[in-house]
Amino acid sequence: MDADVKPGPNFLNDLGTAVLASKKSVITGFPSLLPGKFPEPVFMAWVVWLIAATNPFGLVTRTGLGHNFFMNGQIGAWKKSLYEEIWPHEVVKSEVLEDVKIGRLLGKNKIAIETLDLSSILAVKMYPDIKAAFAGMSKNSADIAGNSFGTIFLSILCLTWAIAWSFAGPMSWLFLLMFMISHAFVMRVAKMPWWTILLIPVSLIMASITFLNSLMLKKRGMRTWKGRNY
């Protein structure tokens, strides 16, 4: 687990039950997000929404087909024999986005991951304010897509999602409402403030800027976080 997660009183019992019930050798999951100082929750809304919008976690879990190529570094449970076979953290120790890289490593080796909703037993406060959130996400966002083209594509895609609804004429508000409803499902699981639903276009504009800033810092070798350079 990451050092900034906050387990609830039933965490060990409930996670133990999930581990025993699982047929997978690797388990990960998503905690609830504790909000930082406004407008940090608005910024973080795009992170949660984008992960949920681009990964069919529920479909993979229910069908047993496919692979998300993703793992949340905030928490993971491993079968000891598998961990000692591949030593995943040793393999990706030089990577900035090590948890996602581990997920891709497992996907490449066709090792299934079970992704759980842990929001009722685990919470995390990732950043205290928007300045820290922007710096933290600028550290690793350029590595999400894997290359410069992919990062620029994600930046354009987020900007398009943020403003495209406004060009739908009389149907604009209907499209915006549908957009907000999709966001509401994600916020319900993450237990983020409900009012962030109203500002998802603003959040996605922040995402677009973050991707470009992260790419620029990566190209210049200027990505820093908590005294470390990446």
Describe what this molecule looks like in 3D.
The chain has helices at 11-21, 40-54, 57-63, 80-86, 88-91, 98-108, 130-140, 148-163, 172-190, 200-220, and strands spanning 5-7, 26-30, 32-33, 76-78, 113-117, 122-124, 224-225, 228-229. With 230 residues, the protein is mainly alpha-helical. It has one domain. A 3-stranded mixed β-sheet has the order 1-6-3, with no helix packed on it. Strand 7 (224-225) and strand 8 (228-229) form a beta hairpin. Helix 7 packs across helix 10 (200-220).
Helix and strand succession? EHEEHHEHHHEEHHHHEE
Shape: globular
Number of helices: 10
Content of β-strand: 5-15%
Structural class: mainly alpha
Q: Which radius of gyration do the C-alpha atoms yield?
A: 18 Å
Report the mean per-residue pLDDT as an integer: 88
- Per DSSP E runs of 2 or more residues, the count of β-strands stands at 8
Termini Cα gap = 22 Å
Number of domains: 1
Biggest sheet statistics? 3 strands, mixed
* Low-confidence runs: none
Residues in helix, %: 40-55%
**Strand order in space, largest sheet:** 1-6-3
Give descriptors for this structure.
230 residues; 10 helices; three-stranded mixed sheet; mainly alpha; single chain; 11% strand
Fold topology:
Blueprint: E1 5-7, H1 11-21, E2 26-30, E3 32-33, H2 40-54, H3 57-63, E4 76-78, H4 80-86, H5 88-91, H6 98-108, E5 113-117, E6 122-124, H7 130-140, H8 148-163, H9 172-190, H10 200-220, E7 224-225, E8 228-229
Parallel strand pairs: 2-5, 3-6
Antiparallel strand pairs: 1-6, 2-4, 7-8
Helix pairs in contact: 2-7, 2-9, 2-10, 7-10, 8-10
